[in-house]
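User: quick one, fold this
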Amino acid sequence: MITEKRPISLSYFIGIGYNKEDMDGIKDFYLVPIGYLIAFIFIIGIPALIAYRVHLGEKFKKEKK
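Assistant:
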């Protein structure tokens, strides 16, 4: 068995938006630490920043009135 590090899209890990033909010959794959970091940023980080920005906007509107 040959193990090879290759970049793949997170969609392959999730199982959305890929063709089965693209996975021919691949038995297993997993995320490396940078993949977990990127997934965390997309799933938790960006929505948290957006929510914080909305919260600050509402807070400043109330202070202005």
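User: anything notable?
Assistant: Residues 53 and 59 are 10 Å apart (CA to CA).
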